[in-house]
Amino acid sequence: MVWRILTILALGACVMAQGPRGNQNMGAPAPAVRSGAPLDMTNTVVIEGDVTSVSIAAGVQYPSVVVDGKVIRLAPVWYLLDHDFELAAGEHVKILAAMCACQESVYYAVEITKGDVTLVLRDSLGIPLWTKGLGGANGNENGAGNARTGTRAGNACLDLASVETVTGVVASVNAGLGIQQPSIVLNSSDGRVLSIRLAPERVLLEQDIELTAGMTLKVRLASSACLDGLVALELTTPDGVTIRLRDENGHPVWPR
Question: What is the pLDDT of residue 59?
């Protein structure tokens, strides 16, 4: 009997020495998922010129553009479109870029300017603004735990004199190709055929709005030099549902 008691006590001592199963520091922050500097922010360059091509890579890769013979990786397409920022071949851009501090020599855009609009993609450390803080247990750099909002500076290039409301029948609905917003072709009641940029698809679906050819739509729109065409400020469906997409200055009002 005595040896059994001694054995139990010895086993208990071993368990106590090893500590409880699982994470001993339940209140401690989780270890960083990723560490190290993603970009060499001490050696940034400005690349300016016309976009030769836009590439939407397959797999888990960022889209990229070629400017002045250099391939520059950008940001997720959804992030660009959420900030009402489109890119197409032939457009003139100025990009602040940094080299990747990794094995491959690749440029990554820190901020990109098109016309009067500048969109910041990464912070001063090279961390993407669309993340919740790479390697940070507390989320963003301020410890708030929320996704950081990208900075979009400049006007919306909207011609305020062109703002009007038109009603017509949707001739076609076109998904955005590359880094482009989806659009519709509207046969207006006054005989015009209008191609109108909308908003990211998820914005429309989050409002439970579907657009199909043949439906009647009322659109408040304006001409935008940044998007080189007409953009929708507001949509009203046949059943009276109205969705506001942009304010009177052309800035997006959808959550980002």
Answer: 63
CATH topology classification for 39-153: OB fold (Dihydrolipoamide Acetyltransferase, E2P) (2.40.50)
Model confidence at 147: pLDDT above 80: no
Q: Report the 10 Å Cβ neighbour count for 179.
A: 19
Buried b / exposed e across 30-56, counting CB within 10 Å, b at 16+? Answer: eeeeeeeebbebeebeebeeebeebee
Looking at every residue in the chain, the average pLDDT score rounds to 78
| Cβ-based burial of 211 (10 A; exposed 0-12, middle 13-18, buried ≥19) | middle
Domain ranges for the chain, please list them. 39-153, 158-244
158-244 matches 39-153 in CATH topology: yes
For the full predicted model, state whether its pTM sits above 0.85: no
What percentage of the chain carries pLDDT values higher than 70?
70
